[in-house]
Specification:
With 604 residues, the protein is mostly helical. Helix content is 70%, strand content 1%. The protein has helices at residues 5-8, 11-15, 26-50, 54-63, 70-85, 100-127, 132-157, 160-174, 186-215, 253-257, 260-290, 305-322, 326-355, 365-400, 404-408, 411-422, 427-451, 454-458, 468-477, 479-492, 495-498, 501-523, 530-549, 561-570, 578-584, 593-600, and strands at 294-295, 302-303. The longest helix has 36 residues, at 365-400.
């Protein structure tokens, strides 16, 4: 059987005279013998496989390649192992069980994985590297049949088309607003979504196992000119980094990628999972808004909305990742980003707009109480936005580093999935933009009007043209520092304890920005003696020290640089040249040289 072809079919063989025992030419004689042996081997292999005789099955399986019938041997072997993986659910199993379909798919894929794990070494030993792909193809054909039956059974048993129709009608009737629409129970949707993600996740784990298992057979070979298989899904497009090396995978993996099972799972996810998951997120976030209440256990006070909404978002995103589908992650995360934008941030913004809308409380105790309540409600909503920004950043970071990614996705897919998750970070600037607009609105409405006379009131009857007695009296009275502290505390009372640290920093900064520029203008309208300049510098330093002590952030002094430079110029020696000092001091001046000359002229 192993004779070279040029010997069997060469000129010498063609001239040989047939004998009575072998009246055909040598090539035909050998072929007839091969076919006869094939019939015998196939019959004996099938008999041994039906009898579950492992020794006989293995013996005949090894003989197929010896007579040149590799494909036929693999086909017979594939038929044998397909019988081993056929799923027969126990009679006691009920399709109503939430684990029925997930368990059935788990049993199917585990049995195929076990066959591959145990039988691949045998196949490759006698048939050659990569031959397991032919057996796998037959196994996947059986898997395709089972997966199709299970998904169709799941669709019917769970009434998925009706659920999808009900959800669509809810959205249509509500005009995009889900308030007070109870046609669909979110808990029922939650159950079927977990089933859908669970079934898809089982396929994903099987796919990842097959990729890793088949990749083990790939050894570096300089003579191997076969190009690597591109396993990137069409939906990924150009999302993969140009610098990312293509992953070399075995040709056998193409069978998995092109299987009907994968197509069925992806179709199920796009048809049912994504639209229902997006609806579920919207409905639960809407409920979080409607049931929102102030969380008095938090300091500063927030509402229950951020914690409730982001708890649900984390569950939804984790379930999405467990589907092990890159296309589903890309599609669903994009829509969830829109949900958080339109159904979360926009609703908080509407609540902010409504706090002072129609508020017409008059003067008196009742009006003051209404004003305090409105102010607190507004600040709490701003706190919600600040907390939401932190929650979003932490959630995306946590999921991007989660073990869910390497557990469910191929190494070449992890970056694409991580990139899709990171798109949610784009919401944080929107959170902060709405937050800043709200803080500025509150500041302009409540605090800015009170700051217009702040500096003149602090410096009322204060003179910096001082002699020795005047300086001693000013030092004893310390009017500027005392007045500033009293007036400042009256302005910001109640804000520090109710704002989050980040929001208070923003609010505090706005107040200083509005305060400093008029302060500068007021100072340059005064005249200073030598001792008065020293007293002004002392007053300024005392105020800056006080303001710095009121915050944990260290950029307060930066806002007073111009005033501090004014104090420096006022305290120059009378004989020192201002221009020479300006150009040679090495100070990073924020005052122009012209402004420096004007300040120096304030001395008398």
């Amino acid at each position: 059987m192993a004779l070279p072809l040029d010997v069997v079919s060469g000129p010498f063989a063609e001239t040989a005279v047939p004998t009575p025992e072998s009246h055909l030419p040598p090539a035909q004689t050998l072929q007839a013998a091969r076919e006869q042996l094939l019939t015998v081997f196939r019959r004996e292999f099938e008999r041994a496989s039906r009898a579950r005789d492992a020794t006989a099955t293995s013996r005949f399986f090894k003989l197929f390649p010896a007579i040149g019938w590799e494909a036929e041997g693999l086909q017979a072997y594939a038929s044998f192992v397909v019988e081993l993986v056929k799923v027969r659910p126990p009679a006691s199993a009920k399709t109503s069980s939430p684990l029925y379909y997930i368990t059935a798919l788990t049993a199917l894929f585990e049995s195929i994985a076990l066959i591959v794990d145990q039988h691949q070494p045998v196949v490759e030993k006698y048939y050659g590297t990569g031959k397991m792909g032919l057996v796998l193809e037959r196994l996947l054909q059986e898997a395709d049949r089972v997966v199709k039956d299970l998904i169709e059974g799941w669709e019917e048993e769970r009434s998925m088309k009706r659920k999808l129709s009900d959800v669509s009608s809810v959205i249509h009737k509500a005009g995009g607003d889900l308030t007070d629409v109870d046609l669909v129970d979110p808990r029922e949707i939650d159950k079927v979504l977990s089933e859908a993600a669970g079934m898809s996740g089982r396929w994903g784990l099987f796919r990842k196992f097959m990729h890793e298992r088949l990749k083990e057979e790939m050894e570096p070979d300089d003579d191997d000119d076969e190009k690597p298989v591109d396993i990137a899904r069409p939906e990924q497009g150009d999302n993969q980094s140009n610098g990312e090396a293509q992953e070399v995978v075995p040709t056998g993996f193409r069978v998995v990628e092109d299987s009907q099972s994968r197509q069925l799972v992806e179709a199920m996810l796009s048809t049912y999972y994504t639209p229902l998951e997006v609806w579920y997120a919207r409905s639960v976030i809407d409920k979080a808004h409607r049931l929102s209440s102030q969380d008095l256990s938090q300091t500063p006070i927030t509402t229950t909305t951020p914690d409730d909404a982001f708890y649900i978002l984390k569950s939804v995103l984790s379930r999405m990742l467990s589907s092990a589908s890159v296309a589903t992650v890309q599609r669903t995360s994009e829509q969830l980003r829109d949900v958080m934008d339109k159904d979360y941030v926009r609703v908080i913004k509407q609540k902010l707009d409504n706090v002072y809308k129609g508020s017409s409380a008059g003067p008196g105790a009742r009006g003051d109480k209404a004003e305090r309540e409105n102010r607190q409600s507004f600040i709490i909503l701003l706190n919600d936005l600040d907390i939401s920004s932190s929650h979003m950043e932490r959630l995306v970071k946590e999921l991007s580093q989660s073990t869910l990614l390497p557990q469910h996705f191929l190494d070449s897919e992890v970056e694409s999935v991580r990139s899709s998750l990171n798109q949610l970070i784009n919401l944080v600037p929107k959170f902060r933009s709405t937050l800043r607009a709200g803080v500025e609105q509150l500041f302009n409405q409540l605090l800015r009007p009170k700051l217009r006379t702040f500096i003149p009131d602090v410096y009322k009857d204060v003179s910096y043209i001082l002699d020795d007695d005047g300086y001693s009296a000013a030092e004893l009275q310390d009017l500027v520092r005392k007045r500033f502290i009293k007036a400042w505390e009256g302005l910001i009372e109640g804000y520090k304890d109710t704002f989050t640290e980040s929001n208070y920093r923003l609010f505090f900064g706005l107040a200083l920005d509005v305060l400093v520029r008029p302060w500068e203008k007021f100072v340059v309208s005064l005249k200073f003696s030598e001792l008065g300049a020293i007293r002004f510098d002392h007053d300024l330093r005392a105020v800056v020290a006080y303001l710095s002590s009121q915050t944990v952030f260290g950029d307060i002094r930066d806002k007073f640089v111009r005033l501090q430079q004014i104090a420096t110029l006022l305290n120059l020696d009378s004989e020192e040249d201002v221009d020479e000092f300006y150009n040679g001091s090495g100070i990073a001046w924020q005052l122009s040289q012209q402004e420096a000359r004007a300040v120096a002229n304030l001395r008398v």
